[in-house]
Structure to design on (308 residues):
């Protein structure tokens, strides 16, 4: 797959593409449907396939606020490559792009495509004036619209996934995502308290990611090509009066030094909220209990798999 990065002045994309449009934050099940339909069109029409997205979240850019992503740009590129896309186009967000008329956006970037695949609520151009109806007028017989996908009667969307994660509703978020919510990062130096407490932890740099609700989680770690169970904590460690929000994971039955290594954390279950303890002994006792709860859940998962 070829990755292209360009700005609002670029002449356009490769001609005769099956082209999928969107921001794809989280790459949830509705996004996956868009991508799969694009690949199907590419196969049936005998043309190359492509995704076109933006370098950052346009709404956050306009509001001049930091955007915390469900999936970083590198995550989207990796997924597109694994799915088998031929091209991945990234438009750099700028003031000029934000002010671009939707008609100009179509003329510059979309006219040469063989098929354009979008979600039912896709908008583009200055103030979001461009929509699916405009695309269909300008590109007759070229536009394929993926209808709304719902889960239990409500739309599957990035905002709903965020709300679920912010409430610790990991199971709901994961069902909409079509897999475990995950954060990719590098293991960095922490305070070293976990080891002193008997629960050594890997402190993960989560730069740019949206963090679920503060608390303790049953997680999985992907490290050195292996998947391992772990217990993770998101929060400020109020017992020790920290201010910085950290993401730490205690990998079961693992004691190697992994500073500087890349790690993937997959969220499986919310265990409990962040708590303040009167003593380190009380904290250690609670962590031992949390670990026991998680290991029971793991045993149950294994039993269920054996029954299947």
């Amino acid at each position: 797959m070829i990755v292209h990065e360009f700005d609002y002045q670029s002449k356009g994309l490769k001609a005769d593409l099956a082209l999928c449009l969107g921001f794809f934050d989280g790459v949830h099940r509705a996004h996956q449907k868009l991508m799969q339909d694009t690949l199907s069109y590419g196969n049936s029409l005998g043309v190359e396939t492509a995704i076109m997205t933006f370098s950052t979240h346009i709404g956050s850019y306009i509001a001049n606020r930091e955007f915390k992503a469900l999936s970083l740009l590198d995550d989207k590129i990796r997924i597109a490559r694994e799915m088998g896309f031929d091209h991945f186009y990234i438009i750099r967000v700028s003031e000029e792009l934000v002010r671009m008329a939707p008609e100009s956006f179509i003329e510059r970037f979309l006219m040469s495509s063989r098929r354009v695949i979008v979600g039912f609520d896709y908008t583009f151009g200055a103030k979001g004036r461009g929509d699916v109806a405009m695309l269909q007028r300008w590109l007759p017989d070229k536009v394929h619209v993926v209808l709304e996908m719902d889960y239990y009667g409500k739309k599957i969307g990035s905002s709903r996934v965020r709300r679920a994660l912010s409430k610790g509703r990991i199971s709901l978020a994961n069902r909409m995502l079509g897999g475990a919510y995950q954060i990719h990062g590098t293991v960095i130096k922490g305070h070293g308290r976990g080891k002193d407490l008997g629960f050594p932890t890997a402190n993960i740099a989560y730069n740019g990611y949206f963090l679920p609700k503060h608390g303790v989680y049953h997680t999985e770690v992907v490290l050195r090509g292996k998947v391992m169970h772990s217990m993770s904590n998101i929060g400020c460690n109020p017992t020790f009066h920290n201010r910085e929000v950290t993401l730490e994971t205690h990998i079961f039955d693992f004691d190697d030094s992994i500073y500087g290594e890349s790690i993937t954390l997959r969220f499986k279950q919310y265990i409990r909220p962040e708590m303040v303890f009167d003593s380190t002994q009380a904290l250690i006792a609670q962590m031992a209990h949390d670990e026991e709860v998680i290991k029971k859940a793991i045993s149950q998962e294994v039993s269920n798999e054996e029954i299947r």
Notes: The chain has two domains: 2-154, 180-307.
